[in-house]
């Protein structure tokens, strides 16, 4: 039988101590509901009283219903000198009306004596009194031993005595915290094993990622007998973050014999990760293990041809198990197989033009060498292949454009673009002003195209990136422009390279519009056929 | 005595297999020189023959000199059926003219029989022949055992036999590769220990991060006796990346008794990490352990006050040891000390210029909020402070400029800038053509200034960078331009921000020229005084 591990999520508390991570009370509720549906056991929602947002969350949570998870309020043991029932912090923990609470106390003797300026025995009394007070209010109590590993290294007996104080007072779980994130897996294993000989209630681990070992440390603790793991989705958290549950859960449940969440929810992992980065308004990390966009992306030519033969060769698990999927990237590292696979996905049968495949590969490699990057510009890639294989018809022709940027003594500058295009022998001549030269050109081209292709109004530009390629050449250098465009949730990328930023932008812009129009045309075909 | 570990960097080879990571041959050379100066032992530069860029790098590297590092060319063992001296891949490895080569071969019996369709014994022959061929050409040979851990799990005897084949043929090091990144630290320890009983040459580890264990697995291998570690700066690499050397090196050298690089270079780690993400044009990960901007950033109120009392409380090491620094993410007061600190670092005593330091601070913070970034633009920062405090005189005034970009049916575009500036009531009107609008403007401004300040010919632009700030606004977004200029080895950075790339470039350009002229003036003063 698999060992069951309690998963304690602190995305809403320790997660928000990470730089740039912030959630409204409503955000927190939406996240808590997703975590509950996913099968997380404990959801730490915040520190009631530390800020109004956390208070509000606990009010919302008290009215919501959760199928599986227990909501947890976080706080500290009572202040030195306070009676627990007079301690505002403990009172607020009770008032949060959660089934469980987590409270942290000191394990490091140095801090007890220096920071709190109380005796070792007084600190044990504070821990006992605080836990007992909360148990008397019928809470499940999770005791977080702050700085446990640092304290243990200095005085193991005292560090363990703090855990025993919590245990005696009725704590349900004690959690060993590597608060500074500086402990290594070998030390975690050794210390957890020692602690388990002396403590008779479940022991948990709370690790940070300051040595890039947040996941490894939690795994070492579990291997040594911890049955409760604290962490966050995407590893968000103070400084370098906390144990990343998106990696920990599959490591324990797919690769080892532990049970964290119901098996059938594993394939929701990727969606959960992206949902939470979306709510936090943080760009998802493409390289993130298991759930990142690149986690099953293959770029090297040899890897691709091998994966096409047998997926086990370069994939440690099937991407679908955690809801992710395989991608093949096209770049100058790619051999024939990348290009064939990619073309196949795009519905282009290269073998039909079999003499052409090597030529296409050569041409793409040449372009990449000039600075074109097709990984993020799949639409340009598709257009290029279609042009090379002769299955492409242009939607418009450029007759010419002129951009004027003027600045005078008054300081502000004015930008104007004029443009002439031809569609089926009909010439359209347009002008537009913009924020800058590319913006003006974009507006003029839209204006001109709209006359022939009114559907162009449905698409918009999402993202515009400029990268100077050979920077040493200063303002005379080559530039690469990447444009990301979208229509109703569908998005596509295009690329242009030139020593002139306007030319590079023009290439990426026209590819973007052309790709969109080709897609629209494809969608129309069935209707015409009727 | 500390155990010495050989660090093998593959940022330029496996790193570029990561999505969005691409370097020109010149980029690669600049990176290799930085890695060498940092104290890396081996620098794997690419796969000669796989693409033109890698070829070009080895040509550049052959002409450059490296103080410490050995440059390594990467490739595979020879193809089944080929004699080594007829194998194009092996020939190119020799022609790359590097002191060392790394070649990979198969360890997994399944792949030998299924993918290569040769016998187990034939595969051992290929390994032996390939290694021997390279040794006969006086190369140091590092043999990479691809899929070693997966192969070992299936057939340990055969996996080890492939290593012994390489050893017999004279390989200098064998490297155990966790190619798919699916192996856990416990398995790594166990397998490395077994291998070391049977192999008598140095053994290395090449780990990937697919389980977020790239660093932990390399550490487990070192703990079990490996003395050679492969990895990349910032963990760039195929899929989820490779062992991150920016975490591994301090973990081994600061927290354990291993020697990876000379101690005095450890404090260059943060700068090295940021340099490489800059060259790759990838936004640095703020949460990255050790070197990230948030790695020593304190947000929680309790943490901040504690850290201010005693840094050990929430910092696992002193940030200065690896060249990073502490940040406090709270109040406006901290903003004030940041800016005073920055000014002080630049040698500007703010209280000397104005009693109203707070006003300067407010204005600078406002600008930073709009996207100005003064870390890489200390010349603009200095100019701004001087302008605000009234100790600045302009060298020229802009009367106006006009830029015209024209493109017609023939395809190529033409860019022209005209410009009027005034110096001491004398107006200069100039025109110039350029590669793009900024290049043309730069040339026209130089032309005009040269008449009054001939010394302007001594300075040149080193580097020109564009970053779109609010990417979601597409081509109408704000952009930041950073310019790096130099004269006789002295360099300085300037910045401009605007929704118009021309305006932003103009700001950075004029700051750059003005700063240069002010420096020249300062240098002249002593002579005039004589």
TrEMBL record, chains A, B:
Pathway(s) it belongs to: Amino-acid biosynthesis; L-isoleucine biosynthesis; 2-oxobutanoate from pyruvate: step 1/3
Top-level lineage group: Bacteria
Keyword hit for Transmembrane: no
Record CDD domains: DRE_TIM_LeuA3 (cd07941)
Any single GO BP term: isoleucine biosynthetic process
Transmembrane segments: none
PROSITE patterns the record matches: AIPM_HOMOCIT_SYNTH_1, PYR_CT
Top-level enzyme category: transferase
Amino-acid biosynthesis listed as a keyword: yes
Protein family membership: Belongs to the alpha-IPM synthase/homocitrate synthase family.
Protein name in the entry: Citramalate synthase
Pyruvate carboxyltransferase domain: residues covered: 5-267
Matches recorded under PANTHER family: (R)-CITRAMALATE SYNTHASE (PTHR43538:SF1), ALPHA-IPM SYNTHASE/HOMOCITRATE SYNTHASE (PTHR43538)
InterPro entries: 2-isopropylmalate_synth_dimer, AIPM/Hcit_synth_CS, Aldolase_TIM, Citramal_synthase, LeuA/HCS_post-cat, LeuA_allosteric_dom_sf, PYR_CT
Catalytic activity: pyruvate + acetyl-CoA + H2O = (3R)-citramalate + CoA + H(+)
Stretches assigned to coiled coil: 343-370
Entry's EC annotation: 2.3.3.21
SUPFAM superfamilies for this protein: 2-isopropylmalate synthase LeuA, allosteric (dimerisation) domain (SSF110921), Aldolase (SSF51569)
Keywords associated with the record: Amino-acid biosynthesis, Branched-chain amino acid biosynthesis, Coiled coil, Isoleucine biosynthesis, Transferase
């Amino acid at each position: 039988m698999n060992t069951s591990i309690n998963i304690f999520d602190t995305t809403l508390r320790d997660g928000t101590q990470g730089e740039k991570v912030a959630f409204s009370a409503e955000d927190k509720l939406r996240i808590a509901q997703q975590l509950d549906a996913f099968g997380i056991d404990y959801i730490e929602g915040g520190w009631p009283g530390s800020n109004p947002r956390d208070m509000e969350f606990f009010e919302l949570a008290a009215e919501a219903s959760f199928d599986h998870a227990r909501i947890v309020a976080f706080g500290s043991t009572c202040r030195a000198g306070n009676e627990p029932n007079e301690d505002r912090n403990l009172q607020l923990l009770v008032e949060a009306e959660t089934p469980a609470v987590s409270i942290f106390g000191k394990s490091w003797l140095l801090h007890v004596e220096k920071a709190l300026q109380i005796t070792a025995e007084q600190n044990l009394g504070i821990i006992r009194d605080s836990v007992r007070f909360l148990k008397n209010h019928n809470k499940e109590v999770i005791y977080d031993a702050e700085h446990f590993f640092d304290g243990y290294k200095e005085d193991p007996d005292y560090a363990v005595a703090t855990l025993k104080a919590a245990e005696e007072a009725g704590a349900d779980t004690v959690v060993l915290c590597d608060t500074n994130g500086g402990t290594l897996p070998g030390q975690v294993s050794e210390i957890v094993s020692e602690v388990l000989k002396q403590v008779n209630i479940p022991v948990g681990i709370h690790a940070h990622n300051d040595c890039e070992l947040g996941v490894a440390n939690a795994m070492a603790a579990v291997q040594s007998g911890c049955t409760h793991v604290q962490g966050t989705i995407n590893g968000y958290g103070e400084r370098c973050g906390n144990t990343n549950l998106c990696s920990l859960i599959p490591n324990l449940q797919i690769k080892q014999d532990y049970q964290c969440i119901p098996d059938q929810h594993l394939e929701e992992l990727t969606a959960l990760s992206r949902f939470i980065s979306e709510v936090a308004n943080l760009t998802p990390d493409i390289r993130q293990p298991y759930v990142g966009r690149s986690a099953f992306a293959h770029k090297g030519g040899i890897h691709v041809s091998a994966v096409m033969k047998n997926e086990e060769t370069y994939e440690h698990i099937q991407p679908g198990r955690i809801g992710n999927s395989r991608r093949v990237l096209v770049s100058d590292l790619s051999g024939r197989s990348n290009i064939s696979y990619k073309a196949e996905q795009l519905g282009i049968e290269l073998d039909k033009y079999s003499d052409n495949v090597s030529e296409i590969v050569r041409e793409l490699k040449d372009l990449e060498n000039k600075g074109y990057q097709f990984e993020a510009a799949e639409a340009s890639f598709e257009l290029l292949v279609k042009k090379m294989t002769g299955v492409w018809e242009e939607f418009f022709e450029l007759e010419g454009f002129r951009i004027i940027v003027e600045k005078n003594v008054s300081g502000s500058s004015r930008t104007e673009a004029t443009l002439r295009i031809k569609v089926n022998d009909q010439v359209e001549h347009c002008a537009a002003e913009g924020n800058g030269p590319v913006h003006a050109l974009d507006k003029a081209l839209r204006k001109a195209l709209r006359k022939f292709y009114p559907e162009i109004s449905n698409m918009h530009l999402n993202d515009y990136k400029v990268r100077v390629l050979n920077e040493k050449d200063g303002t005379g250098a080559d530039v690469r422009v990447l444009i990301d465009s979208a229509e109703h949730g569908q998005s596509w990328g295009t690329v242009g390279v030139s020593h002139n930023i306007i030319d590079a932008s023009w290439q990426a812009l026209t590819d973007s519009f052309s790709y969109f129009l080709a897609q629209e045309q494809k969608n129309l075909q069935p209707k015409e056929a009727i």
